[in-house]
Specification:
The structure is a homodimer. Chain A has about 230 residues and is α/β, with parallel strands linked by helices. The first copy, chain A, contains 8 helices and 11 strands. In chain A, strand 9, helix 7 and strand 10 form a beta-alpha-beta unit. The longest helix of chain A has 19 residues. At the A-B interface, helix 8 and strand 11 of A face helix 8 and strand 11 of B.
C-alpha cells in the first residue's frame, strides 16, 4: 500500500464524457468528493446530479459530486486534476487551465488515438501526450500519466471489478504516489512505471487492446492488462 | 487456436545466450527440432549437447537440438529464425544473415535497452528494433516482433509456466500466425498486436517490467504481463 493519504476531492476535466463519468462514479462511491468540469457548467451539474442519483438508487450511497466549468473545477481541486478530454482538444484545454493548475497535480489520461483508426496512435513530437503536457505546463506543475488502458465501459459498470492494472508514469515521484493512492481507492492496482517517457509505451497499449477487443480472434472484449508475478511450480 | 501447422524446426540465432537457451529448452521439450546459431559452431554444439542432456535427465525427453554457426543455422531453418542477440550486435548480425533469410521469417525478440540503464529503452530512428530490422532486410523478408517481455529466468525454469502473454506484431499476417503457432507450443498465449509499429510499445514494456522487478515496492520479481478479459459480476 501507498503511505500517501487519500485525496479529499478530485477534479475531472471532461468529466461528462464516458471515461470521466466512470471515474467519477468509482471515486464518489468510495467516498471521494468529485468535481466534474465541462465546457458548460449546466451540463456538468446535470451530469453530477444524474450520477449521484444513480449511486443513491443502486447502492444507497450518498455521493458528493459537483459540476462546474473546467476553470472552476480545476480551481476547486485540492490537488489532483484528471484531464479526460478527446486528444483533439488536449492542448487547448490544458493551456486554458494552466493558471489554475499551479500548485496542483495534472493526471493526464488522454491517449492520442489516430483519427479514424483507433487501432493506432499518432504520438505528438514530444513522444507522448504526458510529455507534451509536461512541456506545455512547465516543470513547476507535475504531470502524471495514468488510467490510459482501462475501458470506459468497465469503469461505468460498477458491478464489475476493474480488470486492468494501472501503469503510472511521470517525473515527480510524490505526485505519482498521490495519483496511485487515488487509483487504488477504486480497487485496482497501480504501479510506478517510471518517468514520463514511459508514456510512449503506456499510451500505446490502448490501441493494442482496442485491436484485440474488436478482433474476431479472441472470445472477449473490454480486456485490460495485468502485471503477473510468476505462478507456482507445476 | 491458430489454424497454422506447427514448425518442424526453429533456428535461434544467439542461441547460447540466456533467452535463446530458455526458448530452445521449451521448444525442444515440446518436440520441435531446434538449431542453435552462435559465432562459434563449437560453442553452439556444446550448448546443444548440454540442453539435450538436461531434457533427458530431468524429463526423459529425447530432444533434437543442433549447434552450428549463425549462417549455417539460418540456412538450416525451414522458416522461423529467432534473433536473440544483444542489441549492440543486432544490425551487424542481421546484415550478415540477410542472404540466408530470403524465403524465411525473422522473429526479432531484441529489446534496445539503454546501455547502463535497463529501466529504459533507446529506440532506433526507425521507431523500434522490429521496424529497423524490417527496413534493413527489405519488404521481401517478413519480420515479426515477439517474445520481448518474457523473462529469461522464467524461460529456463521449466518447472514454471510462462507467466506472460506474448504480444506479436509485424506487417505480414501469415508470418505472424506462424510465429504465434510456435509460441503457443510453449504453452502460453500469443496475441496479434498489430503492425510492426506496435513494437514501439511492446519493446518498451520490457524496461517497465525490469523497473518493477528490481523495485522494493512490489513483492515479486520476474513479472510478466497478461491480457485480462473482464471478470464476472461481483
Amino acid at each position: 500500500m501507498n503511505e500517501v493519504s487519500r485525496p479529499n476531492n478530485v477534479a475531472i476535466i471532461g468529466g461528462t464524457g464516458p471515461q470521466g463519468k466512470g471515474l467519477a462514479l468509482r471515486l464518489a462511491k468510495a467516498g471521494v468528493s468529485v468535481i466534474l468540469g465541462s465546457r458548460s457548467a449546466e451540463k456538468a451539474q446535470q451530469c453530477a446530479e444524474s450520477l449521484m442519483t444513480q449511486l443513491q438508487s443502486e447502492y444507497g450511497v450518498k455521493a458528493d459530486i459537483a459540476g462546474m466549468t473546467m476553470v472552476d473545477a480545476t480551481q476547486a481541486a485540492d490537488d489532483l486534476v484528471i484531464l479526460s478530454v478527446p486528444y483533439s482538444g488536449h492542448d487547448e484545454t490544458l493551456s486554458a487551465l494552466a493558471p489554475q493548475l499551479v500548485g496542483k497535480t495534472l493526471v493526464d489520461i488522454v491517449v492520442p488515438l489516430t483519427p479514424g483508426n483507433p487501432k493506432s496512435v499518432t504520438m505528438p513530437p514530444e513522444g507522448s501526450v504526458t510529455e507534451a503536457a509536461q512541456a506545455l505546463l512547465g516543470d513547476e506543475i507535475p504531470v502524471v500519466g495514468a488510467l490510459h488502458n482501462v475501458s470506459a465501459i468497465t469503469l461505468n459498470d460498477l458491478g464489475r471489478e476493474i480488470n486492468c492494472d494501472i501503469l503510472v508514469c511521470g517525473n515527480d515521484l510524490t505526485a505519482k504516489k498521490r495519483t496511485m493512492a487515488m487509483i487504488e481507492i477504486m480497487g485496482t492496482k497501480a504501479y510506478n512505471a517510471g518517468l514520463a517517457d514511459s508514456a510512449r509505451c503506456i499510451e500505446a497499449i490502448t490501441p493494442i487492446l482496442i485491436r484485440l477487443n474488436i478482433s474476431k480472434d479472441v472470445p472477449f472484449s473490454h480486456a485490460g492488462i495485468r502485471i503477473c508475478p510468476p505462478t507456482g511450480e507445476h
